[in-house]
Design a protein that fits this description.
Oligomer: single chain
Strand content: under 5%
Shape: elongated
Distance between the termini: 65 Å
Structural class: mainly alpha
Length: about 70
Amino acid sequence: MDRTTISLPPELHKKLRILAAEQGISMAALIRQAIEEKAVKERPKPKSIGMGASGYTDTAQKASDMHFEPPTWR
């Protein structure tokens, strides 16, 4: 496991220390959990593999020229 150092405001450090004690885990474990949760949420979006690539560059222009008539509700 790699080691890193972070600086925390005193209020945040106190909150983390209390939260870790309430959960019965170390502050390091609590911080690792929080970072892991953030990393999972912020994972990079998959890149396009070109599926559906038509090769046309004016598709958006053509779509904006089309007029769609929604069906009536009655």
